[in-house]
Design brief:
Elements: H1 19-32, H2 36-42, H3 44-75, H4 78-84, E1 87-88, H5 89-96, H6 100-112, E2 116-119, E3 123-126, H7 131-135, H8 137-152, H9 156-161, H10 167-171, H11 190-203, H12 205-212, E4 222-226, H13 232-240, E5 245-250, H14 252-264, E6 271-275, E7 289-293, H15 301-314, E8 320-325, H16 331-335, H17 342-352, H18 360-369, E9 373-378, E10 387-392
Parallel strand pairs: 4-5, 4-7, 5-6, 7-8
Antiparallel strand pairs: 1-3, 2-3, 8-10, 9-10
Helix pairs in contact: 2-3, 3-8, 5-6, 8-11
Bound molecules: S-adenosylmethionine.
S-adenosylmethionine is lined by residues 174, 197, 200, 204, 207, 227-229, 250-251, 254, 277-279, 293-295, 298.
């Protein structure tokens, strides 16, 4: 029987507990002790710890309500309205056609979540978390689109038993349908490609910013962006590094959507389009850097290895690969208490198809497995948007010290 997902967990026969196991079991016993809660609240030295843990648990329980508050604010366009000018409850009730006593609950919840803020004369304005929502259309579009995921997950056990039957799987035609590009239009509507490509273009800004501020492209001559979508990354990189030439590779219906935008930006002479599927076609040659932005996580290990191999084959000696996407948090980051993107992406990618979230270490191992050397994780300011990996096609073998793993 073939399994639809990659299972990388290694089972071990050795059941002898490690020192860490013993320590974790001890901690669990302390946490479970009935007196610990009251004891820890009695002392200022421990009270903050118990408060923080209780708060985190409450937030987990309330998460659905929080995300629905966010969605309601987006659907009522409150962030844009309040960005133009603070407004009173009565004014907002008038604009949204909601009863003031009901709308008030939403506004106060928005204030509690730092999305909104109280302003003078009983008005409401944007809070610190509301400002980016008014400025970046892509965030609002992602929030609206998440609704599909949350609908799919309404019954989480049902979802786990049959993850690909919902709206999210429909939304991404290529993620579980290997012949999406070649399918007759009756089965995969051109509209479907246009819908996800539009969302990707709108949401790619933060990722592009991370890449452009973390990697110096000047040494390159020609960049091939694989899974390029409508070409937002290519367009912004073209403005950033004027000497670069580009190739874009994506499914034919997607590149058909990209053509007009590139022409309007005056990039037709610098960008050549290469429609195809990396499942069936080789990648075009001639670029000295290949980029994979938010592509690998959509696919299972076998496809990612095949894609990396094709990238390796298409590059000249000395050429490079840059892979950027959200990655699973390292244990070190988890210990430091960094907010993790893992739970969201594990479920998002499960609902979408047969891709998965990988750690930088897993992706680096895959890059090395097909022959890339000098594989490294490039530090960037906001790993929540994407982490960035680089590799080289070189004759020299890397020394182990060159491989840094987060
Ligand atoms: C999640 S989107 C990312 C798009 C863009 N790189 C970005 O970050 O916004 C993945 C892209 O890979 C493309 N893609 C998926 N399967 C493909 C295949 N077999 N061959 C070529 N492109 C593919 C999709 O059409 C889509 O444009």
């Amino acid at each position: 029987m073939s399994l639809p997902f990659d299972l990388n967990a290694s089972s071990t026969q050795d059941t002898k507990p490690t020192l860490k196991d013993v320590w974790q079991a001890q901690l669990e016993r302390w946490y479970a002790h009935p007196g610990l809660y009251r004891w820890s609240l009695a002392s200022p030295l421990t009270r903050w710890l118990t408060r923080r843990r209780t708060r985190k648990l409450f937030d987990l329980m309330a998460g659905f309500v929080h995300s629905q508050v966010l969605l309601a604010c987006v659907r009522l366009d409150l962030f844009c309205i309040l960005h133009r000018a603070p407004a009173s409850l009565a004014e907002l009730a008038n604009r949204t056609s909601l009863a003031p006593n009901v709308l008030q609950r939403l506004l106060l919840s928005g204030v509690a979540l730092d999305l909104l803020e109280h302003r003078s004369q009983d008005r409401f304005g944007l809070g610190p978390l509301g400002v980016p929502l008014a400025q970046h259309e892509g965030i609002a579009q992602m929030i609206e689109h998440n609704h599909l995921l949350y609908q799919d997950m309404q019954d989480p056990l049902q979802f786990l038993r049959n993850a690909w039957s919902g709206g999210m799987a429909q939304y991404w035609p290529y993620a579980h349908e290997k012949n999406a590009a070649a399918m007759p239009e009756a089965k995969v509507e051109v509209d479907q490609f246009s819908r996800y490509s539009q969302l990707m273009a709108a949401s790619q800004g933060f990722v592009v910013q991370e890449i452009l501020s973390s990697y110096f492209f000047d040494e390159h001559r020609c960049v091939l962006d694989v899974g390029a979508g409508k070409g937002r990354f290519v367009s912004e990189l073209a403005a950033h590094v004027p000497h670069l030439q580009f190739k874009m590779f994506d499914l034919p219906p997607v590149l058909a959507l990209a053509r007009e935008g590139l022409h309007a930006k005056g990039l037709s002479d610098r960008v050549s389009l290469h429609p195809g599927s990396f499942l069936h076609d080789p990648l075009p040659q001639g670029a000295d850097l290949i980029t994979l932005v938010r592509v690998a996580h959509d696919h299972p290990d076998a496809v990612v290895l095949q894609l990396l191999q094709k990238a390796y084959d298409a590059l000249p000696l000395g050429g490079g690969i840059l892979l950027a996407e959200p990655m699973a948090q390292s244990q070190q980051a988890a210990v430091q208490g960094d907010t993790s993107v893992d739970a969201y992406f594990h479920f998002y990618l499960l609902a979408m198809g047969d891709g998965r979230l990988r750690t930088p270490h897993e992706l680096m191992s895959m890059m090395k497995a097909v022959g890339f050397t000098h594989v490294e994780l490039v530090p960037n300011a906001m790993p929540i948007h994407a982490q960035i990996l680089l590799g080289r096609k070189s004759k020299c073998l890397p020394s182990n010290s060159e491989i840094s793993v987060n």
